[in-house]
Amino acid sequence: MDINLEQTLFCGQSFAWTKTGSLYEAVLFGRCIRLDEQSFASVVADDPELAAYFDMDWEYAKAQSYLSSLDPYLASCITRYEGLHLLNQDPWEVLISFLLSQNNNIKRIRSMYQTLCRAFGSEVGTQKFAFPSPQQLEMATEAELRALGMGFRAPYLLDAIRCHALLDEIPNLSTEKAATHLMTIKGVGPKVAACILVFAFHRMDAFPLDTWMLKVMKSRYPGKDASFFEPYAALAQQYLFHAERLGGGVV
User: Fold this and answer.
1) d(CA 15, CA 154)
2) What would the CATH number be for the domain defined by 91-170?
3) Exposure class string for 150-159: b at 16+ Cβ within 10 A, else e
């Protein structure tokens, strides 16, 4: 199969996964998921939820070929990290995850994510906890969230809990209007809104711009914007972001 689990799960789009040896683990859909490269194909073949989550039916080969034709540097990123997929994640989980991501690093975001799971989520296996629902978090206080290490993000989480129903409206909106809608939540700016649109709603025209991407766009694509990568801007962004963060560009 054309997916690379290592690149897909640890490129900064999800904070649910851990790896022990060759085994990848997460709690998704209220159950414990355990995968490795060898068993992946047979597992997802029998599990439509996982196949959809890993976006197995989308046109990755076509998109990678087209993007590679645009630019030698992007082609080198795709070659190095080939098989990176965009996950179809739960919108609520993505909203909270990327509120936590602000002024943060991936290791610490993952730790904060797991802290919320242990404090508020349902136990679905021995010391394995699901990500908490808005209903499970609705009684949390700012002081309690700060005590758990959420810091200045605590008020953002409280507002997201209060406004979580607006996520249901996103599928019916254009990408531009959806981003504006998401930014009514405290702490959601253009970058976080774009991340939600890519990682929860598979909007290929969304293009998150954080410090890594601003750097690569300035150095590699001066005068260009997301339109240069259409119709696969979101996938291009993830390859460029991942390569820039890991120092993996070749050309």
Assistant:
1) 18
2) 1.10.340.30
3) beebbebbbb
Say which of 19, 62, 186, 191 is annotated catalytic.
191
pTM for the predicted model, two decimal places: 0.94
pLDDT tens for 9-66 read 999 999 999 999 999 999 999 999 999 999 999 999 999 999 999 999 999 999 999 9
**Does 191 participate in catalysis according to the annotation?**
yes
**Domain boundaries along the sequence of the chain:** 5-87+207-246, 91-170
Is the pLDDT at 216 greater than 60? The verdict is: yes
CATH level 3 topology of 5-87+207-246: TATA-Binding Protein (3.30.310)
Q: Which residues of 178-207 are buried (b: 16+ CB within 10 A; e: fewer)?
A: bbebbeebebbeebbbbbbbbbbbebbbbb
